[in-house]
Every structure is written in C-alpha cells, then in structure tokens.
Specification:
With 338 residues, the chain is α+β, with helices and mostly antiparallel strands. It has three domains: 45 residues, Membrane-bound Lytic Murein Transglycosylase D, Chain A; 84 residues, Immunoglobulin-like, CATH 2.60.40.1590; 169 residues, Glucose Permease (Domain IIA). The protein contains six helices and 25 strands. Bound molecules: zinc ion.
C-alpha cells in the first residue's frame, strides 16, 4: 500500500510540475525566461502570447517545465524515439512520437514548428539542427490537443558540436563582383523557398546514392568560410565532388524536379523534391538534362558536371536540404535508411 501511494505521488509530481509565475512591475519576459532557465520562445508559445512585449502586472504565466527523463512521460505521451540517438549540428534525426490516443500534435524545435506525418498514434518528424546552431542544451516543445484539453511536453536534448573546419577563399576582383550581396541573398532565398515545401508523401526508399559514380570529394559539407581573409560569413552548404566537365550527374533519390535553370552564383542548377520537406540540389552543371516538373527515379541522369556560375574549376556542388536547411549529405548516403 505504501509503495502504491509513493508511485501515485511521483506520477502526480511529473504531471503537475508546470508552475506559474505572477508578473510584477518592471518584469520582462526575457528576464523571467532567464530566471527559470527556459527559452523565451517556449515561454511565448506555452502562454500563447500574441505580443510578448505587452505584459500586465498580476498576469499569470505558465512556466515550461522540462520533463524528467528518469520518470515515465506524462499522459498522453508514451514515448519519443530518436534515430540516430544524438543531436549534432548540421545533421537530422528521425523522431517518432507515440501518444496514448490519436489527436492533433504540434512539434516546435529551435523556434520552428516542424511538419510531420501521422500513422495512428505514431507521429514522425525530421528534426533538423542547423550547422550554426550553438551546441548545448535545448528542448523540444510538443503540444497535443484533444477537444478543449491541451497538454504540453518540454523534452530536453543536447546539441553536439559537428566536426567542421574553417577555410578562407581568395577570389579575384572579377569573380568577387559576382558576390554582390543582393545576388547571393536572392539565390539563397530562391533555394530556401524551392526546398521549403512539405508534401506528406515520401518519394524515396532506402538510402540516397552518390550523384557521381566513383566519387572523389574535394570539399566537405559544413566548413566555416571566410572570403579574402574576411570574417566567417557562412558555411559550405553542400558537398563538392571532383569531376571533369561532362561527367554524368545522377539523381540521388527519386522525386520531382522543382527547379532547372541557370543562376548567377550557382550556374546551371537542378533541384529535386523528394517529399517530407527533403530536397537535393546539383550546381555548376555544364548541361541540364531534365525538365521542370519531371518525375525522376534514383540514378537517372539529370545533367553533367561543369564550371558555370561562381567557381574556380569544374566540380559538382551537391546539397541536401530539409525544410530549406542545408544538412550533411554523408548522413543520407550512409546512416539514414527508410
Ligand atoms: Zn560547394
């Protein structure tokens, strides 16, 4: 009897761990977030604050409480499974959330609501951690709704540092002129938009394949970059393959061609949408051998290696993005399977 009572008390303490705070004169939301060691964004979403700058004295705020992983998850959350287990800068994880009953589930990570797919009481998400995300503790915020009832879960995770190097690229005056910020920004925005659409059907299975046969890598993904010895202004968003002009380029996985055109910075470019917010991009091609809207299968020829756009020689710049965020292609060739 004593044992059963103890279990009951422990369970209640997990469920009711969410505390409240009454706003005092002179408080700011960021100061409250710091005091409770929670993220500003979690405080805003949990309390559904339309304008975080407008706090009223006496207002009650719910304080997110990070779940204690040594206890069972509070109802209606049954489990969270991560594949792979560790969260690393520039990599993705497949997250499966299981609930007791099916209902609406929303997942926020690093300030973004991520779309997912539902199969009964299982929900799958692709968790994307950007290269420039700072390493250290953060959390996932999950909300479920059933009728009028809302349940929130703040789940702790720790972002590990990726092993990325730093490099400087010297550009001549002529090529530097192509780096006008408006051109760079426009092309990055175009890639971001083209790769940010989410369709719930997955068009690939298994692993992704190399876009070039017998690959020889010239520059890895994620290297932190500066130009002409300036400050770090970004990172290498793709993986570079050595190749002579004319070397065949293959689709890394099945999907739909959502871009096939000539850009100033990236030259002749092809983008394939694989579903679930995942896309692959192939740049600096000498020739595009596919069309916008075409359905391609894994391994199909979509172009040839070239030196178009801002380059110092022929090579293939290859990217994989998830919801617009560039991620490590090596993970897709080797680690991830579906
Ligand atoms: Zn590159």
């Amino acid at each position: 009897m004593v044992f059963r009572l103890l279990v009951f008390v422990l369970f209640i303490s997990v469920v009711s761990a969410q505390s409240t705070y009454q706003v005092k004169a002179g408080d700011s939301l960021s100061a409250i977030a710091r005091a409770y060691q929670v993220s500003l964004n979690d405080l805003i979403t949990l309390n559904e604050l339309a304008n975080p700058d407008l706090l009223e004295v006496g207002q009650l705020l719910l304080i997110p409480s990070i779940v204690d992983l040594s206890s069972p998850l509070p109802s209606p959350f049954l489990s969270l499974e991560f594949e792979p287990k560790t969260t690393v800068q520039g990599e993705i994880q497949i997250l499966t959330v299981t609930l007791e009953t099916d209902g609406a589930l929303e997942l926020s990570y690093l300030g973004n609501v991520l779309p997912g797919i539902q199969k009964g009481t299982d929900y799958q998400f692709l968790l994307v951690t950007p290269v420039l995300q700072s390493a250290g503790p953060t959390n996932l915020h999950l909300s479920t709704y059933s009728g009028e009832n809302k349940a929130d879960l703040f789940y702790p995770i720790t972002v590990q540092e990726g092993s990325y190097e730093r490099e400087n690229i010297n550009l001549s005056g002529e090529t530097s002129s192509l780096l006008a910020p408006e051109i760079v920004n426009r092309e990055h925005a175009l890639l971001n938009t083209t790769c940010s659409s989410f369709s719930p059907s997955r068009k690939w299975s298994g692993s992704f394949q190399y876009p070039i046969e017998n690959p020889d890598f010239s520059s890895p993904f994620g290297t932190l970059r500066s130009y002409n010895n300036g400050p770090v202004s970004g990172y290498h968003r793709g993986l570079d393959f050595r190749g002579q002009t004319g070397t065949l380029v293959h689709a890394t996985a099945s999907g739909t061609v959502t871009l096939a055109e000539t850009l100033e910075l990236y030259g002749n470019t092809v983008i394939i949408d694989h579903g679930l917010g995942v896309c692959s991009a192939y740049m600096h091609l000498s020739e595009i051998d596919t069309d916008l809207g075409q359905e391609v299968t894994q391994g199909e020829i979509i172009g040839k290696v070239g030196a178009t756009g801002l380059v110092t020689g022929p090579h293939l710049h290859f990217e994989i993005r998830v919801m617009g965020v560039p991620v490590s292609p090596q993970q897709w060739f080797h680690e991830l399977r579906w």
